[in-house]
Design a protein that fits this description.
single chain, mainly alpha
Length: 124
């Protein structure tokens, strides 16, 4: 943490880095040789990522404005991921949900990189 960082900036940075680590763990799980199991764990992690992303986007809107394209995209993707995760049932076959989960993990990973890059931008 730089000496110039305020406690709020440090807090947001910590949340971004923690969420990024969760995404990396899930990304490793879905790109492995074995299907993702159990579905309830995947659902929980995806919902956690979606909820954290929603909160981070809300906080970053205060600094960068609601119309920032990265924030709008993050909000839309987060909403989509949440809907899809809520539709996962324990009885679904892992092979059936793996493509959707993999797509969501890749999307979340890309969005987190964009949000982390925004962190370096000057607020408007």
């Amino acid at each position: 943490m730089g000496e110039d960082a305020t406690p709020r900036e440090a807090y947001i940075r910590g949340r971004l880095e923690g969420l990024n680590e969760l995404i990396s763990i899930l990304k490793d799980a879905v790109t492995g040789d074995k299907p993702v199991e159990p579905n309830t764990v995947v659902k929980t992690i995806v919902l956690h990522i979606s909820n954290e992303m929603e909160e981070i986007v809300g906080e970053m809107k205060e600094q960068h404005g609601e119309s920032h394209p990265v924030l709008r995209k993050a909000k839309a993707e987060s909403d989509r991921m949440e809907r899809e995760a809520k539709a996962i049932e324990p009885e679904h076959e892992a092979e059936d949900i793996a493509p959707m989960v993999k797509k969501n993990v890749e999307s979340a990973d890309d969005l987190m990189k964009s949000l982390m890059a925004m962190r370096e931008e000057e607020p408007k």
